[in-house]
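Q: Structure for this?
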Amino acid sequence: MNQAEPAEAMLARIRASIERQRMMATLGVELVAIERGRVEMALRYDDRFTQQHGFLHAGAVASVLDSACGYAAYSVMPPDAWVLTVTYTINLLAPAAGQRFTMTGQVVRAGRSLVVCRGEAFADGAERPFAAMQATMTAQYDRPGVSG
Amino acid sequence: MNQAEPAEAMLARIRASIERQRMMATLGVELVAIERGRVEMALRYDDRFTQQHGFLHAGAVASVLDSACGYAAYSVMPPDAWVLTVTYTINLLAPAAGQRFTMTGQVVRAGRSLVVCRGEAFADGAERPFAAMQATMTAQYDRPGVSG
Amino acid sequence: MNQAEPAEAMLARIRASIERQRMMATLGVELVAIERGRVEMALRYDDRFTQQHGFLHAGAVASVLDSACGYAAYSVMPPDAWVLTVTYTINLLAPAAGQRFTMTGQVVRAGRSLVVCRGEAFADGAERPFAAMQATMTAQYDRPGVSG
Amino acid sequence: MNQAEPAEAMLARIRASIERQRMMATLGVELVAIERGRVEMALRYDDRFTQQHGFLHAGAVASVLDSACGYAAYSVMPPDAWVLTVTYTINLLAPAAGQRFTMTGQVVRAGRSLVVCRGEAFADGAERPFAAMQATMTAQYDRPGVSG
């Protein structure tokens, strides 16, 4: 864990990285909350991103959960690291039915190069998640000119 | 496996279902090939769907691999079934760098209600995949008015 | 969820099933606690079950986490169901170093036929898990003579 | 990939590492074949390792698949590396019913520090696998006195 970096600086580098993710803008993702080790994002229903039964496509859900987990991991990495998703497993527990979807990513344990996170997706303020993710992120340091 | 259904009918129900997936149209996904137990789709680079380093976002890759696996599973299900993703694991083996991405989904084994598939994503005709998926799909039969 | 069954009956069918798992006896697994939706088991270090560096083999850890998740799922299933593991993902966050390993399985969400659980493994009373599991279990009803 | 090392030396370091895995001896695992990027192991039915219905416990299957994938990864790593499992996903496609189980691990793609493999388990010479694994392994270099 990187606890020396001021919270302000950590928030700034996460916001800067999210702004560079065109996919987040295309999906209309809103950044709800960041703390060290935990990120919350929200996504509104949009019929451009639906599957064949009119619910949100799992791919849209997975995109945001992946980003929430990735930024939760990034929040505990050193400032000169950048973050990549190694692998994740997503369970779709129920259709993504609703208007507003809240997605959380939380660090389970952070090692030197690998950070494991869990994500959960909730519809319209429901208490039980409709999707759950377990994700493995990696910190990279070595590519000049690449950050975030 | 459902081998009694004519190939024509199987192709027709898959095409009809894909057409109802608005997410596929939004991503600009092209259906390349369908045979029983195997589906191939293609996705072009589009900077609306990028991550922070300018590569295609893992969420776009996962969306198409998930659909390729889902339709591979659907191709071996009885005509009155519809298909849902239960869970998948995706490994991102390299950045999604390229112009045209080919995604395959293939049935590993089909049971009565669960079908397990593997997916692979290739960039610009490369031989080695840049992403690999293992997915569990379920056949559903019981919701009136729902199909595909 | 199956909330009509008395807790006593639920405990009895879980204990009966565990007693039939020879693998649990071979590993020396201890049943620590059962409540509806959550099961805790313990495993002692044993050099018969080590990997090449002298730590507990991931297979031993996974066996017990899988059983803890499976019985957590089983605890919320109807009495005539039996439980099978469909798939799980395990992250090994640190070596399994210690003398006594506590493994918990907890239901995230239970559907009609599929139950998703999360498992965590802790060494010697540590607060942070050294392994995390996300598991998909299925309830089966239809094989005469098979239960648990 | 590490192609400079002679095949003999690669076989020798894999055999030496397997011999240090007490879990493999306890399960009675047999090393069937090794080539660079692919390892095959076999396991005989043993009622010490069964689940509640008398089939082989998923934990025994997962232990051997994990080792087959781990050694497939190890076979392409530099001689001074040692291998650790980061995470794997296993699908149990059918009960492990049979007398002799063959497990294969194969490298999908090897990066500098992470190697992704796929494993399959077959019962009594069947053509279709009864279990499938997707595994992420890591090469470690930095702990003095640790190898394999």
